[in-house]
Amino acid sequence: MNPTFRPIDAYSGLLERYVAQLDWSIPYQPNCKHAIEDKDNYACVSDHSNCQDSPIGGYLCYCQSGEGNAYIDGGCPNPPVQSNHPRQPTIGAVYGSIQPRTNCPTSCGNMSIPFPFGTELGCFAKLHLYLTCTPGIPTAALPVLQLTDRTLVTDISIGGGVLQIHGISEPDDFMSDSDHPLYALSGEGERRMVKWAIDNMTCEHAKMNKSDYRCFSTHSDCVDVTDDRTLRHIGYRCKCSSGFEGNPYLQDACTDTNECHQPDKYICKGICQNSFGSYTCTRSSIAGVTIGLSSGGGILFLAAIVAILTRRWKGNVQKRLRKRHFRKNRGILLEQLISSDQSASDAGTKIFSLEELQKATNNFDHTRVIGRGGHGTVYKGILTDQRVVAIKKSTLAMISEINEFINEVSILSQINHRNVVKLHGCCLESEVPLLVYEFVSNGTLYDLLHREQNGSLSPLSWEERLRFATEIAGALSYLHSAASVSILHRDVKCMNVLLTDSHTVKVSDFGASRLIPIDQTHLVTAVQGTFGYLDPEYYHTGQLNEKSDVYSFGVILVELLTRRKPIIQNEHGEKQNLSNYFLWAMRERPLEETMDPQILEEASKEGVMCMARLAEECLCLTRAQRPTMKDVEMRLQLLTGRRVAPRVEQGEVAQPAGNNGRGGIAPLIGQNSSRQFSQEQEFVSSLLVPR
Question: Which residues are annotated as a binding site for ATP?
Fold first, then answer.
């Protein structure tokens, strides 16, 4: 047997079907691996020889140079030295080549033939990868590529490790041999797929055999091949590493893949940048802005939806809560009382909604607070009709009996006096009812009397003080006697006396007020008021009547006369009620040391003494000795309308006072004479009588 015969002759009937061919091998070992391990019986004894697995089992030996006899010692000549790679043997080996020769055919008809497959000696890597390119038959113009005489190859995939074949109906040829190392058949019918391997070794063993390892290119990997049907190991094949493409069986044939040129396979929604063995995908600024705007818009839309739903839910909760408060605060009862009272309706008394008052006060903003007291906080508000109002938000403790509160609102809505703050209405939709009064803009009488401006108190004439006292007395007299029930203020003090721009008095803050029917003389209540103004008898007994307001008014008279605060510091550095100090000073000290020097310069001594005596009466510790507010109002009106003459002795005629403007007409009183003057003059005279 000629050792240099063509490998195609090993396949019977491929070219000359009438010529008989004989396949042979050394059968003592199933393959080269086992043969090499059996060193004593290894047949490839010549240097520069290689072992080749036989497709029929066993193995064959061949010289690397392609010439000589590998089965005898020294039968193979030395191969020529190759400069391009230390592993590369001489091209033209008998049954396979590490690398193909330079002029190997690369196609058969329209079929590409990549290495390790080949159609000529020196062009295929292993014997089982030899293919036959047969001339075209009369019905076909192009040559065809055959694996066997009944099998046509239609496609070769190096990276996928498969052949597409046509013509096999049953796997009964050499590929079905369990000892065959290269193929695994799959699919049905005439068109099938064949998985192939470069050698029958595993990747682990192949990498150990450096001289025959076929993954020749850098950046290539070894892949074990198994039969999908039987799961038996077939061998190994090579592929380019991830990020590289090409032919791993050729030297340096695995080159970098430009993933950016294959957008269908390598998806990049942005800017693609190729790198060696990989690629990066960065989002463009436009894409980023678009995505950012889209995401931001979506988030804002969802936030808006959530905010709207939350606001509606809160609104529904607030509506139900307001209705509950309105029913608890007897809103229906008050509506009936106001509608049945024509005077309240004509006065414009209204039940406001909480929403109206929230809008008027900017949701009860702290910057709208104009006053705080023991009975609540007062806010400045502007209604939708542009009326400026004062909205009083009472403390929770003050609304203990809601029915009594409703009655008070009903009564107060009927008050129409120029010196009493007008009640416009109330709101019952909050936990604590709100009262809406007219707004008085010029501060309080307390500010005018006691608060310094630029280091000194503002001048306050006698006439103004007398007018303030008269207007306050008139307002309290109206509350005590002009309605069907007496209205007791219970917290009369300078801070609750408001002043308009024209210094007109407005009595305010009825948070502590109580109603006394005409047939009752007093009420027993928890003591409320302000120290310095509090009626001592009310403080000790808890019994409240109109004389309690008279006592508090007496303190205001003393403040007007002395321009001192209701709680003062005496000569010993102790705090003392102004009322107690005043009563002591009227007995123990001259008038000039007690009164404000300004009024002594402007008013007559008799006029000042008249008001001082009236204040003494109002401050009597016993209520029975105090005058009523009606009496007080009448005396102050007489004092305002008349100039009082100096006191005269009995039987003397009062002379004109001259040009000082402080004189007047005094009554003639003789020892045996009768009263020859009016009742008004009697009131004035009575003020001069020591008590």
Answer: 393
Between the alpha carbon of residue 682 and those of residues 239, 609, 669, 676, the distances in Å are 133, 16, 11, 10
| Counted domains in the chain | 5
**Which residues belong to the annotated binding site?**
393
Active-site annotation holder among 53, 199, 491, 549: 491
Alpha-carbon gap, residue 276 to 289, rounded angstroms: 30
Helix, strand or coil for residue 391?
strand
With respect to residue 296, please indicate whether it lies within any of the assigned structural domains: no
Q: Are residues 117 and 219 in the same domain?
A: yes
Helices 462-481 and 605-618 cross at an angle (nearest 10°) of 30
- Annotated active-site residue 179? The verdict is no
Give the pLDDT confidence of 473-493 residue by residue, as tens digits: 999 999 888 656 778 888 899
Please, which residues bridge with residue 132 across strands?
146
Do residues 173 and 148 lie in contact, with contact meaning Cβ atoms separated by under 8 Å?
A: yes
Shared-domain flag, residues 667 and 633? no
Convert the pLDDT of each residue in 389-434 to its tens digit. 999 887 764 555 676 667 667 767 778 889 998 888 888 888 888 8
DSSP code of residue 212: G
Counting other chains too, the contacts that 281-287 makes at CB distance below 8 Å and 24 or more residues apart are: none
Q: Are 153 and 131 in contact (CB under 8 A)?
A: yes
Taking a C-beta distance cutoff of 8 angstroms, is the pair 449, 494 a contact?
yes
Closest CA to 158 of 243, 248, 261, 62: 248
C-alpha dist (Å) from residue 497 to 62, 398, 437, 442, 491: 129, 21, 14, 11, 11
Q: Which residues constitute the domain of residue 137?
A: 102-282
Q: What is the pTM of this model?
A: 0.50
